[in-house]
Every structure is written in structure tokens, then in C-alpha cells.
Amino acid sequence: VHLLPLFLHPEKSSSLFSHAFHGAHRKTHLTYSYLSCIYLSVRSCAKTNPIYRPPQRLQVPTPSHNIQNHLTVMAFRRPLAFHHECMLVIAFVLVSCLAGAATAKQTGQLTVFWGRNAGEGTLREACDTGLYSTVVISFYSVFGHGRYWGDLSGHPLAGVGADIKHCQSRNILVLLSIGGPGNGYSLPSSASAAAVADNLWNAHLGGRRNGVYRPFGDAAVDGIDFYIDQGAPDHYDELASRLDGYNRFYRGRKGVRLTATPRCGLPDRRLGAALRTGLFERIHVRFYGNDTCSLGKGGTYGVVGQWEKWTAAFPRTQVYLGLAPAESGVPEGAQGTVAVYLKYLYYDLLPKVQKANNYGGVMVWDRFADKKTRWSSVVSGWA
Questions:
Q1: Of residues 222, 228, 156, the one with CA closest to residue 187
Q2: Does residue 80 or residue 354 have the better pLDDT?
Q3: Closest by alpha carbon to 125, among 96, 85, 159, 176?
Q4: DSSP string covering 57-105
Q5: d(CA 159, CA 163)
Q6: Taking the CB of residue 293, how many other CB atoms lie within 10 A of it?
Q7: Which residue did the predictor score with more confidence, 65 or 67?
Q8: Where is the GH18 domain (predicted)?
Q9: Dihedral sign for Cα atoms in the order 6, 9, 10, 12
Q10: DSSP state of 263
Q11: Cis geometry, peptide bond prior to residue 7 (ω within 30 degrees of 0)
Q12: In 96, 155, 215, 218, which residue has its Cα 20 to 30 A from 301's Cα atom?
């Protein structure tokens, strides 16, 4: 509707384009490029071949009435011919524009990590913002040596189970992330991988066994996220296979979803073997922290280059762009992250990463920083 006057009155295209641009709601900068293509093609066409140029009768020095009428008809049809020519040019340009625009997509999927700071509020509060499609509880950080425990950094366990159910009732996935920045975990053997899988199943997922403590009561998370930042890389592929095996207890649905949150360097030293199993439906790539491929270190160019490697390496897996709204929300040992400038995210970074067919959305580290900056309240419309 906003663009129709450009075709009807191309001689006024300069002012009309401005109106059309401001009247249309831009979701991404691609819309700007799309409108620019239309504007340039229409303006060029209008300069050379005005669509509604007043027709001129031809002055033909001949007494033949039939010939005169014939040429007059031709003269009146000529502007219409130019009109068709212009429309063909415009159509060609539009196809070219759309061919580029069609490669980028928004999913609206925003994932946030919760559980690292008591000041971030409750899990229910995070879900009630309406910003997130997935919330990841962090972390189940002690495992592999006969001890199993999670650290929610000051959050009382009472009420978390009810909050999990509340989030799920709003169609928000709730995952439990294992690992984290601490050093209280590892998988020294295949037996330890089996034991950890058994504990996760009976303590946090759909299993039940006498003597196994369930910190969230009868609430069950929707899956397990692998955030392995310390220790040896051994046996995480076996852990993933065992966890995926529990899906046999669910009829027609996936009860145990597997995701991973590796550093941006590829291949990931600790999760490489696990990711190669093909069992992970999502990968949240961390483009923050001290890695040279992080946004703070490598800029947009470095992020996009590494992003293309990740999306090409795992074409059947949804890949998420992991960012940190503020340095205060970065895990221990990763203090190099800088705040993400929204204008660069909007105009530059997101349009580039969204061209990947397996772009999944944006992952936010973490809820505490996000609550302070209100970063996701802006970015949620662009993801």
C-alpha cells in the first residue's frame, strides 16, 4: 500500500519514497535495501520513460485519413509500451532484491541462561516477561565422581519446581545445563558417564527411583544442555547417547532434548566428539568472553567468519548466536566481553548470520545482565 504511489506517480518518487519508507514498519535493514531497489528502479524509469506522459498526436503530412488515424492510435499507445518496459525493469530489480532478502530469516527464538545471580529474579519472573522461548537453568556443576549437585547461586530451591511447570504451561522450554565455569565435574570413565546419565534421568528428567533426590520435586526439565568449559573431553559423547536413549520412554515426542553451548572456536576441544554424534538439536555458540572469535575481540568480521564454519559443519542442527548484553554477566574467567552495540547488531551482524538456513535464534548470557540492560526487550523483535 505504501509503495503503490511510486508506480502511479514516479515523477514524485523522491517525496513519496520518504513517506513509504516511514510508513512501512522495518523489521530488518533488508527492508531498507528492498525499498531502495524499488526507488532507484522507478526513478530511473521515470526519468527516461514517464509512464503517464501526455500522449502527443503525430503530425503526419498526408491526406490519407486512414493512415492518420492509424498513426494517432500508435502515438497514444506508445506511452503504454513504455509503461510495460518500465514495469519489466522494476520487476527484474525486485526479483534481484528479493533473491538476496529471501536468504535471511528471523525465527523470533530467544534463549536465556538463568540461575547465576540471585538479583536476576525468579524463574517465573523470567518466563513472564514474554521475551524468551527457552530458559536454561545453570548449572548442574558437580558430577562424575559419585557426587551430583547443582549450584543456583543463591536462588532457593523451594519454588523452582513450580516455576518450571509455570514456564512449561506457557510453552517455554526449560533446560538444565551441566558443567559451567567451575572445576567440580568430569567424566573419567564410561561408567561415570552412565552414572551421570542415570542421575540426570531420575533426579531432573522423567525418571523416578527411590533414594534419588529430586531438587525440583516432581517437575521435569525438557532436556539437558552441555556447557562443558573445564576438564578433559572424554566420554561426553557417551553421556549424550545415554541421555538420548531415554526418549524410548516417550510416545511420539522427544522428552529429552539435547543442546550444547560451546565456545566459538571450532572444533570445540571438549564437545567435539559429542557434537559429532548428531544427537544435539541446537548449538548455542558463545561469541563472548576472551576467545579471539568473540564479538569483543574479533568484531563482526570475526564472528561471521566463525559462524559460517559452525553452520556449515552442522547443517542439520539449529545454531544460535550467543551474545552477552553486558560484561557483568560474563562467566568467571571471561572478563573480556564488551557490551553489544544494538545498532551494529541490527544493521550488520544479525542480517549476516540470519542468512544461514540453520540459523536458530539468539542466546543471551545471562538473565541478570539482561534484566539490568533490558537488552532482550529490544533484540527480541529482531531475532
A1: 228
A2: 354
A3: 159
A4: --------HHHHHHHHHHHHHHHHHHHHHHHHHHHHHHHHHHHHHTT--
A5: 6
A6: 21
A7: 65
A8: 108-383
A9: negative
A10: B
A11: no
A12: 96
